[in-house]
Write a structure and sequence with these properties.
By secondary structure, the protein is mostly helical. It contains 10 helices and no strands. The protein folds into 4 domains: 57 residues; 45 residues; 54 residues; 49 residues, no CATH class. Helix 2 packs antiparallel against helix 4, helix 8 packs across helix 10 and helix 9 packs across helix 10. Keywords: Membrane, Transmembrane, Transmembrane helix.
Length: 207
């Protein structure tokens, strides 16, 4: 059977989608059709690469090598991830880690099992969305805190005379702290940050 190169080159996405659908169907119905899913997967991968080579926009060897390196990197990421995941699954299964889950499933109703599986999937999606919301909230709060610091330090430039007077004539706060640690911390705050000295000067009603 001859391959129409011009049609494959013009409709590369359609051809690859059809090949992937046929190969995936062969993997699903391997028991009914007496196929080996590993062989079907390998044949599907070879056919997809053939279609990709036919529909390649350029015959330059540099472009082909660069595209092969990019595709190999993506495939390697998936393969290494699957190797690690399957190693964990096989280790847990060898120690009968999933036996606790299978022993607790006592129902034989497909509807109940469907609800249980759907609930687990929904919980995973909920955790994922909650993580995203937490990350966004963290960065927004950090940005707001940074902006508020800029605004507070900007107020010092608006009152140069008052701040210079407060720096040259530091005053003690009019608060009577009973605890010694609070008094020490308050004095350290006045000594380290002159802006807060201006703040207490402005709040002093007798000045």
């Amino acid at each position: 059977m001859a391959i129409n190169h011009s049609w494959v080159a013009a409709n590369q996405d359609v051809a690859m989608t059809l090949l992937f659908g046929i190969g995936y169907a062969g993997i699903i119905f391997e028991e009914s059709l007496a196929f080996n899913k590993s062989g079907v997967g390998l044949i599907m991968a070879v056919c997809l690469w053939i279609v990709r080579s036919i529909g390649a926009p350029s015959t330059d060897i540099v472009v082909a090598v660069a595209e092969l390196q990019h595709a190999s990197a993506e495939v390697s990421e998936i393969v290494f991830f699957l190797l690690g995941a399957m190693t964990i699954v096989e280790t847990v299964d060898s120690h009968q880690g999933f036996k606790l889950v299978t022993d607790n499933i006592t129902t034989r109703k497909p509807r109940t099992l469907l609800w249980a599986v759907s609930f687990s999937l929904c919980s995973q999606v909920y955790v994922f969305l909650l993580d995203i919301w937490y990350i966004i909230f963290y960065f927004m709060r950090r940005k707001k805190r940074f902006s508020s610091k800029q605004v507070n330090y900007g107020k010092r430039e608006e009152l140069p005379a008052v701040c210079s007077y407060a720096e040259s004539n530091p005053i003690e706060p009019r608060f009577d702290f009973e605890l010694e640690n609070k008094t020490i911390a308050h004095k350290q705050l006045l000594g380290q940050n002159r802006f807060w000295g201006c703040h207490y000067f402005l709040r002093d009603s007798s000045c």
